[in-house]
Amino acid sequence: MEEQQEHLLKSETLIDDSAPSLLSRRPDSRHLHRRLHFFLLYVVNALLVVSLMVLLVRREKCVDPSLKTYMPANDAVEWEETVFIDMPGEVSPYLGTPSDEIDELWDQLYTGTGFLLFDPEETRRMVEPTVAIPTSGGDSGLYGMEVFHELHCLNVLRKSLYPERYPHYQLWNENCTRNPNMERHLAHCIDRLRQGVQCAGNTGTHFYFWSEEAGHWKMDMRSRHTCRNFERLQEWARARDYTGFDPFVRSHSTADM
Ligand SMILES: *[C@@H]1O[C@H](CO)[C@@H](O)[C@H](O)[C@H]1NC(C)=O
Question: What residues form the membrane-spanning segments (predicted)?
Answer without folding.
Answer: 36-57
